[in-house]
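Hi everyone,

Forwarding the result from last night's run.
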Amino acid sequence: MRFFGKHTPRMRTPRIKIDSRSSGAIYHCMSRTVNSERCLDDTAREMFRRQLWQIADYCGVEILTYAIMSNHFHVLVRVPLKTEIADAELLRRHRVLYPKPTPYQTTRIDVIAAQLKEGGADADAWRKQQLALMNDVSQFMKLLKQRFSVWFNRTHNRHGTLWSERFKSVLVEGRGHVMATMAAYIDLNPVRAGIVSDPKDYRFCGYAEAVAGRKTAQAGIIAIVADENNRAWRGVQDAYRLHLFGSGVAPRGDKAAISPEALEKVVAEGGTLPLATVLCCRVRYFSDGAVLGTRAFVAKHLTVYKRQTGHRKRTAPRPLPAITNWGDLVTLRGLRKKVFG
């Protein structure tokens, strides 16, 4: 399917600069391969999945959910506030990046550990270098894409860039409905692509990994939808499936998707569709809206944006097109209203 809406020209809507060091900031990040080439086969996606978890652990970033497709990926992450990190933890995280170290790497980390105990300029420089990569969404994405590109180029006898552009990111409000809507949109990627009718059957997404029993993946879904009285995985899973399918806990087969022509007809007639149906379409606001959340949340970051850029034009949080009941969702960046152009 085509994207929902089109970009407003860049000169009218500059890139939004959000401080990635905000306490508990949640981001939806995505990136595409060069020319959207479908070059990520099962082996590549499995390697990307492993590196995703490794680098998130190293950077101190919490993965809430993700989807790895043949030509792009999405990841929803929580980026905690920067804090002091003990040297022992820095060494542990560094070893995470090298699960099978060479003799040189083993010797080097031993030397670093000794230097940290003794102190001095070398220890301070290494510590500063590591801390600069922690708790920052830009550093996390840069390291993830670089390391995977190195592996991919080496194993496929190629060189040059693998990714078409700098990653896109949307700051997401950390509230249940907002996070669950974004997470469902991400996990429904393989349904939109027509690969499966239920994301639990697609190996390379966060929900499938959680259903398969991985505790860290389950923790991500729990963080998205759980409340104080319901943090058991079974109850959380049932609640999350309501976001995925709208009603009940079973997939709707071929009714989970809607054709572009049918959607255009609904829009032209001023009709509406269930949210779960719309989430099975490609909605550009979820990757290009800059900030997604309640009106108060978006207005707060709009103020920050104006202060950063000096932009004085009268601007307000933008409601999403009234094609469904979005709840209290609005966005910062306005996109053209034409649907499936």
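The two ends are 11 Å apart (CA to CA).

Cheers,
N.
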